[in-house]
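Section 5.1 Outputs to date
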Amino acid sequence: MKGMTIAAAVTMVLAALIGLSPLLILLSGAAGSEFGQVGWVFMFFTIPVGLLVSLVAFGLAIAVSIIGISRAKNRSTPRMLIAIGALVLMVLSLGGVTVLLATYGMSIDLNLIAIFCLLGLAGIGLGVVTGFIAPAREPRIETVTS
């Protein structure tokens, strides 16, 4: 479970770096004047790839949260609340952005998108916490009966 947690965190960082790489290059000044003319074409590749990689990170974090809920059941209430909070925040973020884009298209307020993105980041953060604090799986005890 810790492996999935680390994979989700690393994947989310990679998604942010991939998706924002054109802006990082532009702000660093290393691109030169040519980037201002044709660099926007680079964004048509990096932003969709960054979104796809972030969906993978969300999937891993959602799986970690679900496993954390199942392992914390009847054991620890704080661990259960953290896992449920992570799951709710991630689903709310993904669902909210999807509904907004489907309903309003590109004419929506960017502040709403920013709020849902921050909810998603908080959910990913709680999912990472869930992965590290979830109790270990109980070993299976097999008995031999005759």
